[in-house]
Amino acid sequence: MQRQIARPRGSIRSALRAVMKHSVPKIVEATLIPTALFYAAWMLVGHWAGYVAALTWGFGALLRRVRRRERIPGVLVLALIGLTVRSALALATGSSFLYFAQPIVGTTLIAVLFLASALTTRPFVARLAGDFYPLTADIAARLAIKRLFRNLTILWAGVNLLNAAAGLSLLLTLPTAVYIPTKTVAALTITALGVVATVTWSIRVAHREGLVLTATA
Fold first, then answer.
1. Is 191 left (phi over 0), alpha (psi -120 to 50) or beta?
2. The pairing of beta strand 4-5 with beta strand 215-216
3. How many Cβ atoms are within 10 Å of 114's Cβ, its own excluded?
4. What kind and span of H or E run contains 118?
5. CA-wise closest residue to 111 among 168, 55, 30
6. Where are the alpha helices (DSSP H) in the chain?
7. Counts for the chain of helices (H) and strands (E), in that order
């Protein structure tokens, strides 16, 4: 019987679909919706209304999951912490510039934490993997998977540093009304490239570990 080797491209597409199905709703909930609400309230009412709108959505999403006893995604927790800190800083100082500058500093610090966690037995990607793709405990415990998590943690440290650099450049050169949508598009583009690299890398490791069917009789 002739063996037909499955095309890696198809496997990557399937994995991307699975990742998108599992993670996109969480990303939309944690980042895109509060950003859209902030921008709309900022333009229609003012920056104070923007802070309130974004915070209301974030804490509402958190409380909704608590009431339903659902798992709280790590991306939502991180986004809400960042949103709370930057809003409190902006309200305390009266500076909207700090509201936009704080995430850049925060993203840089996250990149440093990612790099530091890569030196531990459980890097950040291992902690957040469940938010993006379901993994069983035995698969997560494999040596090759642990090595993958460490390498991906370093990759995402780079993604965060690139996002921070892009955000700073745009903040210093664009007016606020243009900065918000431009920064959002830039961040989504950089993050999407990171996701594609992550899935491609993960598929290769999965093939080597025999976790993906690569041939049929």
1. alpha
2. antiparallel
3. 22
4. none
5. 168
6. 8-27, 33-44, 47-67, 74-93, 96-117, 124-132, 137-140, 143-173, 176-208
7. 9, 2
110-159 pLDDT, tens per residue? 888 889 988 888 788 877 776 666 667 777 778 888 888 899 999 999 99
| Alpha carbon distances (Å) from 101 to 35, 169, 183 | 15, 11, 12
CA distance 84 to 61: 14
- Cα distance between residue 21 and residue 160, in whole Å: 23
Rounded Cα distance between 161 and 175, Å, is 22
Is 131 in contact with 24 (CB distance < 8 Å)? no
Instruction: Compute the distance between CA of residue 162 and CA of residue 166 in angstroms, rounded to an integer.
Output: 6
Model confidence, pTM: 0.66
- Distance, CA of 159 to CA of 195 (rounded, Å): 10
Angle ∠(108,114,118) on CA atoms, nearest 5: 150
Q: Is 212 exposed, middle or buried (0-12, 13-18, 19+ CB in 10 A)?
A: middle
